[in-house]
């Protein structure tokens, strides 16, 4: 059974651990076995701490045996993106410059997961400083997509996406500034949730762009997303961007009954210039939701035409402000792609940046108006399937286009507005996963989770990447 444990979701493992049918040590050993076998190929981990993980699992097992069960995350092995601080441990941020950096405190989300009894197995690969969407990391090597080792896993949380998909961790956290949770969730066929901006504390997370950054779950199932979000959400006085609103018991909202819910579709932006197979799968998913009793309504969001400008002006300026000193004093220590983006970020003026913030306000008003008549908005997560590693341009509908411009096209609106957005698998195209994005009103994560849960039950992704011969462990 030990081999099977790593492939299970939190929702399956938690009852077994609580009832003492399975020990956290067995689960952790199963995960570490897969890491040992698969990481040389996938490169999802930057570092693994086997000794500490086993010791932590033994401690969790003792707690549970003595009647101190803490909840569904107790004894669950998790590896996190190497951007989140662990006290007195190295956090590389996927970089050379921070390769020996040790934080003096735990990130808020790390503290909450520790309180929940999580067993940490290591730190996961990422795009350098989270500034990119390929996880083709020049310092720690490229992370590979477990569905096809020649393909990118997306980014910047590519290690998290690949590790969850390949059962090298039971669950993970990613960060998302332009799509960095949802892009790898789509590319690897898992569930990724970017909560509302202010729902989860970013204290102790190295920033990419202050006003766009989010932290959220990257997991195997929708119920797992609800479990993890409930553990990490909440107001934090150490993070002034968090909002003091109550945290729902998200698992209570997971129902297959979505009769009467209204699904919004925006044609002119979210279904424009999409790979035909991707579009067909997402439209089929909408039809499934409709067959389950949801109403479908077309909505207009005029401000979407400004997304590309507003996102790039904001992220370029904020990221370059963060890295300005190192860019001036040690530019050679950045990867070429990140250095170029940081140099570009030195060019926008204060006028450019402030105009972008005004456009964000307009976009928020337009989304709020749309959510006055629909419960959620459904879109493709990505307009294309994952590209080959090292490919910075791709063919989309007969045209050669820039990868970075198009990879965040459907995810960036969620960052600009701060609205909650979730990616869930909706099928396979050319053997690669395709994600459907569900967006909703601010602080209504439970609504997204309900729709996603109903869809997952009606249309589960039954194929796993490791069924191919190179993943037989």
UniProtKB/TrEMBL annotation:
Pfam families: Amidase. PROSITE patterns: AMIDASES. Belongs to the amidase family. It comes from Ferviditalea candida. This is Amidase. Residues 26-449 form the Amidase domain.
């Amino acid at each position: 059974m030990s081999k099977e444990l790593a492939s299970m979701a939190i929702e399956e493992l938690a009852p077994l651990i609580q009832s003492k049918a399975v020990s956290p040590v067995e689960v952790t050993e199963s995960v570490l076995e897969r890491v040992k076998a698969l990481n040389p190929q996938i490169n999802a981990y930057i570092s693994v701490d086997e000794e500490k993980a086993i010791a932590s699992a033994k401690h969790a097992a003792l707690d549970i045996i003595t009647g101190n069960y803490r909840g569904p995350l107790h004894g669950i092995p998790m590896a996190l993106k190497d951007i989140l601080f662990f006290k007195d441990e190295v956090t590389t941020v996927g970089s050379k410059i921070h390769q020996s950096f040790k934080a003096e405190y735990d990130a808020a989300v790390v503290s909450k997961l520790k309180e929940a009894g999580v067993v940490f197995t290591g730190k996961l690969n990422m795009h350098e400083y989270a500034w990119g969407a390929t996880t083709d990391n020049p310092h720690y090597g490229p992370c590979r997509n477990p569905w096809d080792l020649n393909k990118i896993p997306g980014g910047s949380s590519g290690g998290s996406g690949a590790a969850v998909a390949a059962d090298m961790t039971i669950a993970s956290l990613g960060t998302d500034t332009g799509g960095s949770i949802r892009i790898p969730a789509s590319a690897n066929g898992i569930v990724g949730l970017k909560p509302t901006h202010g729902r989860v504390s970013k204290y102790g997370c190295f920033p990419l762009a202050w006003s766009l950054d989010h932290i959220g779950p990257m997991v195997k199932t929708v119920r797992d997303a609800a479990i993890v979000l409930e553990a990490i959400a909440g107001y934090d006085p150490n993070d002034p961007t968090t909002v003091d609103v109550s945290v729902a018991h998200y698992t209570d909202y997971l129902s297959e009954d979505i009769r009467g819910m209204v699904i919004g579709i925006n044609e002119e932006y979210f279904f424009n210039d999409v790979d035909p197979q991707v579009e067909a799968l997402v439209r089929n998913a909408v039809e499934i939701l409709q067959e389950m009793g949801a109403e479908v309504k077309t909505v207009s969001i005029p401000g979407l035409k400004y997304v590309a400008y507003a996102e790039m002006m904001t992220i370029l300026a904020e990221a370059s402000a963060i890295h300005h000193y190192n860019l001036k004093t040690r530019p050679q220590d950045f990867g070429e792609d990140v250095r170029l983006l940081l140099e570009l970020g030195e060019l926008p003026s204060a006028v450019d940046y402030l105009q972008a913030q005004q456009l964000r306000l307009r976009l928020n008003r337009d989304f709020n108006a749309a959510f006055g008549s629909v419960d959620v908005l459904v879109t493709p997560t990505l307009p294309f399937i994952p590209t080959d590693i090292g490919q910075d341009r791709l063919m989309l509908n007969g045209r050669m286009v820039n990868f970075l411009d198009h990879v965040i096209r459907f995810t960036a609106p969620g960052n600009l507005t701060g609205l909650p957005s979730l990616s869930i698998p909706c099928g396979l195209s050319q053997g690669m996963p395709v994600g459907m994005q569900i967006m909703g009103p601010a602080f209504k994560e439970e609504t997204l989770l309900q729709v996603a849960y109903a869809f997952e039950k009606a249309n589960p992704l039954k194929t796993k990447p490791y069924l191919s011969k190179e993943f037989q462990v």
